[in-house]
Write a structure and sequence with these properties.
Elements: H1 3-17, E1 24-29, E2 32-36, E3 42-46, H2 53-66, H3 69-76, H4 79-85, H5 89-112
Antiparallel strand pairs: 1-2, 2-3
Helix pairs in contact: 2-5, 3-5
Length: 114
């Protein structure tokens, strides 16, 4: 199966299992795709030419579960970030926690399809 077709299949699966349509494939190329949560946190998943759709789903679940709100906050937060985006630290952390919950829910739903 061609890489784009694999990503399209995964995108359709995500749309099917994410009944609240909170997460979506936001960017893609031949060797990766990104899934974005409601507050714009995202994860990237690399794909190999010989990956099956099952391999891609398994890797996606792993990346969704690996997302950590506290870790992402530490990576991104700065005074410049706050000024540019207009978020207080607590607002930004709350948004990341909501995205983490969305990613975990999507991972659980994808897991149920396996």
């Amino acid at each position: 199966m061609e890489q784009k077709n694999k990503i399209t299949s995964l995108q359709e699966l995500i749309e099917w299992v994410d009944s609240r349509e909170r997460c979506y494939v936001s960017e893609q190329d031949d060797d990766y795709f990104c899934i974005e949560a409601p507050n714009n946190a995202d994860i990237s998943v690399n794909i190999e030419e010989d990956d099956t759709i099952e391999d891609i789903v398994a890797r996606t679940i792993e990346h969704l579960r690996d997302f950590e709100a506290d870790e992402r906050f530490t990576e991104w937060w700065s005074a410049d970030f706050a000024k540019h985006n207009g978020f207080s630290p607590s607002q930004f952390l709350r948004m990341l926690q909501e995205d983490e919950a969305s990613f975990r829910e999507l991972a659980d739903n994808l897991e149920e399809t396996r």
